[in-house]
Amino acid sequence: MEILLTGFTAFLTQEWIETAFPDDHVLTTHTKGESLLDTRIKTVMLESKQLLDQLTETYQFDRVVYFSEYLLRLRLSQAVKLLQNTNLRVGTIADQVGIPNVSYFSLVFKKQHGVTPNEMRYQMKGEKSTK
Questions:
Q1: Residue 5: in which H helix or E strand, if any?
Q2: pLDDT at 104 (0 to 100)
Q3: Model-level pTM?
Q4: C-alpha to C-alpha distances, 48 to 60, 67, 68, 74, 106, nearest whole angstrom
Q5: What are the percentages of helix, strand and coil residues in the chain, rounded to 5?
Q6: pLDDT tens digit string along 10-23?
């Protein structure tokens, strides 16, 4: 697969990209003034959103991945595992997955999964919510 990884990617390493996208060809973007942590990464410099649009129109990418969205999905996936396998409070789980604001965590969790973290926990355990 041809993947364009965009967003704040200057700190990524080639090893991280190979782990996150093991069978894919990945091109990253960075903005002018960002210095790359790993110069082995295939990258293109963008100066504006318009250039990103032009890049995606010019080249055939199977998927465009915004790093912040990728990271959020990864955090929420870990949260689901913690909800299923522990009795930790939702606030503790939010902290452990890197989203210290529990209100924001609950909001993005519900947006992604259609239920609140507590509702998902009850569903996974076959119980009814106390709401």
A1: strand 2-6
A2: 97
A3: 0.77
A4: 20, 17, 18, 27, 32
A5: 50, 15, 35
A6: 788 889 899 989 99
